[in-house]
Amino acid sequence: MKEQLEAIRQEALDNIEEASDLKALQDIRVTYLGKKGSLTSVLRGMGSLPEEERPAIGEMANEIRKAITDEIAKKIDVLEQEALEEKLEQEAIDVTLPGRPVQVGGAHLLTGIIEEIEDLFIGMGFEVREGPEVETDYFNFEAMNMPKGHPARDMQDTFYLTDELLLRTHTSPVQARTMQQYSGSKAVKMICPGKVFRRDTDDATHSHQFTQIEGLYVDEHVRMSDLKGVLNEFAKRIFGEDRRIRLRPSFFPFTEPSVEMDISCKVCQGDGCSVCKYSGWIEILGAGMVHPNVLEKAGYDPEIYTGFAFGMGPDRIAMLKYGIDDIRNFYTNDKRFLTQYHYAKGGTL
Fold first, then answer.
1. Which residues are annotated as a binding site?
2. Which CATH architecture fits 110-133+172-340?
3. What's the pLDDT tens digit per position in 67-109?
4. I want to staple 280 with a disulfide (CB 3.0 to 4.6 A). Which of 270, 322, 325, 341 is the partner?
5. Across all residues in the chain, what is the average pLDDT?
């Protein structure tokens, strides 16, 4: 039996040495050490041996089992190391090769303008509020002093989803919701940026979807002069310290009195040119003192509270600031335009 065990040892070690992969090693383990393996079969015959020989044969069998197991483990380490070296060689990187250029993205021009305006008004104590783009007729029109049948509704050709649901035509509903939430219990100082929708024919200066930022300040003793001061600061910060503003009488159903704000033309410095249609001024936004009816609907006592509101289009501001002549460029994902007007903080391109 000793001769048989030695033969098994030598055969197993030779096979382990010649094994070229992990599967072959597993087969060797089963062939010699498995339940039906060579070593197990020999050990089953120990019962026929004289009792005094059994301890020596058992000890020898354990040594052979250990030797085979150890050699299999060593061979596994060798094969794994060889596989790793082969993989590293195949995946080797030539660090002397020139790198591939990576195009770095940036904020879209409209996003950058909106964030710049937000930062400006936050610095003046305004908070940024948002609201739903699918709005009710009440908050979009009635809370803004435009009851059903009011002719001012025709100025905002509306996408209606149902008789009472629509795509908001301005961000004013956010103001109405905020005031109603406070119910006349505290002052409101906020801006509300967002997308708005109107049934309009798309061309160089019109779009069925565009962005808008509206502002609202309601408190005791708010005056028209406060509005002018805020708008003057806005114009200088966005368009340059040399910009001048003027306020012209206008009409909006939710403000009284209402004004349009113009800024002096940066091309001709107010002398008159083709850009400003030889007037020296460019219209930029609408504003006014909050109508008492709007305050009353939101739960504010117009005898105690007054306020001002304004609304501007970031699309138009960007077009004026950077000389862009077609609003559709903002929405067509033209890579040439996006690259040319890559926005950087501080208003530089």
1. 256
2. 2-Layer Sandwich (3.30)
3. 888 888 888 888 888 888 888 888 888 788 888 888 777 778 8
4. 270
5. 85
Q: Flag whether pLDDT at 157 surpasses 90.
A: no
Q: Residues within the annotated binding site for Mg(2+)?
A: 256
The whole-number pLDDT of residue 197 equals: 93
Domain map (residue ranges) of the chain: 2-90, 110-133+172-340
Q: Give the pLDDT of residue 345.
A: 47
The yes-or-no verdict on residue 8 having pLDDT over 50 is yes
